[in-house]
Design goal:
Elements (H helix, E strand, L loop, with lengths): L1 H7 L3 H11 L5 H10 L1 H9 L9 H8 L4 H4 L2 H9 L4 E3 L21 E5 L11 E6 L5 H16 L3 E4 L5 H11 L3 E5 L13 H10 L1 E4 L9 H13 L3 E5 L7 H10 L3 E5 L9 H8 L4 E2 L3 H29 L10
Parallel strand pairs: 3-4, 3-7, 4-5, 5-6, 7-8, 8-9
Antiparallel strand pairs: 1-2, 2-6
Helix pairs in contact: 1-4, 3-4, 8-9, 8-14, 9-10, 11-12
């Protein structure tokens, strides 16, 4: 089955789509091999029994176990279903591929699956701000998130969030209400609107913005996929702001990844008696985040990062593109 699979994925675009259907996102071995030899050759290496560059024999067997023949049996059918759907697959080299995610290096997504206006992703890094925070938000947090999103959207920024309940939902709603642009980065397939209670909201995001995911259509959310999604939400934007978060909130992972990438990080303070203030206050105490008390602070944070990061980002993107295998021109798949 693996031989037939590699024979059918003879171009870089299809091979990357197949990889996303077989391998979990942010796999370090797959990411490294993908950057070194391209997706077509990765599939060929996966089906052979010889050495895998950089891996011991045991580690190579563990890595190859992801390419389960029984899991690969329906790949051709799944590719056909995608081709007949409204879902678009973006790969490096496409006009709408967001250069910002290349900063993730070996952790860059194999492919980005998009429903809606994929052209949003080609906008400059400074145009994007990520707003994230607690799912069990308070009215205070929701109001702040709406104010930040509405102001940033009116300033022609794209609001990036994860479509979740609480702070992220409030951010999407405010962007839509002001006629702004917004993108929801999902931990599941873009054809599965999750959480179910946000089906109407996510439908509206598709109509005027975009749903983006690195896992293929039909994929369900898992803990690993939520964790992996954090790096995409961080990489896509020039600045990330956290509005309410507990000590163990996943939104803190977005902030830390943004900081690691050299992006701007902001945190909104809250009442010291509220457990949802603990996360933002810890970011501020650790020096990871700058204080955000109003929407103007967020816009200034994004602009400040743009002036520092954008030239370096362009240089890195040029270097990445020159060493990557070329892809076909973007097409709907």
């Amino acid at each position: 089955m693996m031989a037939a699979l590699s024979d059918s994925a003879t171009d870089e675009r299809t091979a990357r789509m197949v990889l996303s259907m077989l391998v979990e996102p942010n796999d370090p071995v797959t990411g490294r091999l993908l950057a070194q030899i391209g997706a077509v050759e990765v599939l060929r290496v996966a089906e052979r029994d010889d050495d895998v560059p950089g891996l011991t024999g045991v580690d190579a067997r563990v890595w190859r176990d992801q390419f389960n023949p029984s899991a690969a049996q329906d790949i051709a059918e799944r590719l056909g279903q995608v081709q007949q759907s409204e879902v678009r697959a973006l790969v490096p080299g496409d006009a709408h591929w967001p250069a910002a995610v290349d900063d993730l290096g070996d952790g860059a997504p194999y492919v980005l699956w998009v429903r809606g206006a994929s052209s949003f992703l080609a906008r400059p890094l400074r145009d994007f701000v990520t707003i994230t925070g607690a799912r069990a938000s308070t009215s205070y947090g929701d109001n702040v998130a709406r104010e930040l999103a509405a102001y940033a959207a009116a300033d022609e920024r794209v609001i990036v969030a994860g479509g979740a309940y609480g702070i992220e939902g409030a951010a999407h709603q405010a962007a839509l209400a002001t006629g702004g642009d917004t993108i929801a980065v999902l931990a599941n397939g873009v054809d599965r609107l999750y959480p179910a209670g946000h089906r109407d909201l996510l439908d509206r995001v598709v109509d005027v913005g975009a749903l983006v995911s690195e896992v293929p259509p039909g994929a369900v959310p898992t803990r690993h996929r939520f964790i992996a999604r954090a790096r995409l939400m961080a990489a896509l934007s020039s600045a990330t702001v956290v509005v309410e978060a507990g000590f163990r909130s996943g939104s803190l992972a977005v902030a830390h990844r943004a900081s690691e990438l050299g992006r701007g990080v902001g945190a909104v303070p809250g009442p010291v008696t509220n457990v949802s203030s603990a996360g933002p206050h810890r970011l501020l105490q650790a020096g990871v985040a700058s204080l955000v008390t109003d929407a103007a602070d967020l816009v200034r944070l994004a602009d400040r990062q743009h002036s520092v990061e954008e030239p370096a980002l362009r240089a890195r993107h040029t270097a990445v593109q020159t060493r990557r295998p070329s892809s076909e021109q973007e097409r709907t798949l």
